[in-house]
Amino acid sequence: MRNHKTRFCLVALVTIFSLLGCSKDNQVAGPEAAKPPDLPSVNTMTMNLEFFESAQIDPQSVKLGRLNESIAAKSASSKLNYLNAAVRVLFLNIVAYSALAEPVAVFVTAVRSVPQYQQDGSWLWTYIYVDNHDSEYSIFLRGKRMNTCIEWSMEVSSTNPDMILDHFLWFDGEVQNGGRSGSWQFYEPETSAINYARILAGNDESTPGVQCVRIDWQNNSATERRLAFTINKPGDPSEGSELVFEEALDIASIDYYDAANGNSGTIVWYKDGSGSIEWPDYKDGIKNCWDIRQYDVDCQ
Fold it and tell me: Disulfide-capable partner of 157 in 55, 60, 93, 138 (CB 3.0 to 4.6 Å)?
């Protein structure tokens, strides 16, 4: 099945990146070192789910990951396949970005600041980010050219009493030369109790963190890309779960593998508005389709 093939490809992709990595034997010198590296595109971290954002579903359905019975009844069973696909896609987006949304939003704002060259050959973007609750975060985004890639990392400091941070590593990663592939590793701070104990002890070290989500990505062209998300937080109930988003000129898809129960599913949508859902908890896991107006149809 397609989802099993995708899972195999994801494992292979992660293996390739872990074996090849970023060559650090020599950092780039000469004219290239005299100018800052280009900031990676945010589409190396985010999925394009605009197709489902206009679906008439309530927030509670999205939060639960299944369609509210009242919504299902109102649809008169005419668009159930599309609506059930939308609920699951938007739910997975929340799951995938629960720890990523804020650092990704902060990363986007880096374009407003001017980087400064550092003695170690890296370039440093420093700026202040203010969240929706008026809390300020000092951001330190670093990019450094190496032999075959550019290394990136973002640290954050904050005096927000809810979570005091001191040069906490929010994410790091590598962009291969040519900008067509790379990886990101995101981190979460240790628990508040541990963090405050560190502060009270007068420890000057950076706020400790733990890995939570890894993204391996490929941008093969302006219209074709692939993001593979892996939940890799040790001890997390979803550790090992994988989500693969693929997008081409006329088609996009999501494949999901739930490590907790071994279930997997696939949702596909086309530029003309049609699509399909094949999900273990929906209609016995068989493939169900919708047409260009999102009405339920038999799969061809």
Answer: 138
Beta strands in the chain (DSSP E): 116-117, 123-130, 136-145, 149-158, 165-176, 181-189, 209-221, 224-231, 242-247, 251-257, 264-270, 275-278, 288-290, 296-297
Q: Please, what's the b/e burial string for 192-221 (b: 16 or more CB within 10 A of its CB; e: otherwise)?
A: eeebeebeeeeeeeebebeebbbbbbbbee
- Binned at pLDDT 50, 70 and 90, residue 12 comes out as very low
Q: Are the C-beta atoms of 136 and 163 separated by less than 8 Å? A: no
Residue 177, judged by CB atoms within 10 A of its CB (0-12, 13-18, 19+), counts as middle
Cα dihedral 29, 32, 33, 37 sign: negative
Q: How far apart are CA 195 and CA 163, in angstroms?
A: 8
State how far the Cα of 244 lies from the Cα of 5, in Å rounded to an integer: 11
CA distances to 114, 151, 174, 211 from 10, in Å:
36, 22, 17, 19
The tokens for 34 are 């005299």
C-alpha distance from residue 259 to each of 120, 172, 254, 282 (Å): 41, 25, 16, 18
Stretch 280-298: mean pLDDT: 95
Supply the Cα-derived Rg of the chain in whole angstroms: 21
Q: How many residues does this entry show for the chain?
A: 300
**Cα angle for residues 44, 49, 51 (degrees, 5° grid):** 145
- Rounded to whole angstroms, the Cα distance separating 264 from 99 reads 22
Task: Report, as an integer, the average pLDDT of 263-270.
Answer: 97
Alpha-carbon distance of 147 to 20, in angstroms, equals 12
- Averaged confidence pLDDT in the chain: 85
Grouping H, G, I as helix, E, B as strand and the rest as coil, residue 5 is: helix
Which string of b and e fits 59-92 if b means at least 16 CB within 10 Å? Answer: eebbeeebbbeebbeebeeebbbbbbbbbbbbbb
Class of residue 274 by CB neighbours under 10 A (exposed 0-12, middle 13-18, buried 19+)? middle
